[in-house]
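To the team - iron/sulfur cluster complex, inputs and output below.
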Amino acid sequence: MAGWRDRAVCVGGEPEIFFPSEPSHPNAYAVARAVCAQCPVRAECFNAAASAEGGRAADYRYGMWGGLTPEERASRHRAARKAETP
Ligand code: SF4
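Output:
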């Protein structure tokens, strides 16, 4: 049975694009962001990353997933937690 990963546009691509060796460089994720913007399974990819990463700090998240950098995913997580707090 085909899963969402079978429809990912990054399959077979250069890993360095999504897992840059210098992630703090201002343009480290520029190409990955452009690729992810064209991907039909961005939501599924993000959800998988969110599930795997849980509440980790940005320093403990790696690579571009769902079109978001580690910092962006950590920020999303914090915002979601804040929204859940009564
Ligand atoms: S959203 Fe980006 S990282 Fe995720 S599967 Fe699509 S191209 Fe790959």
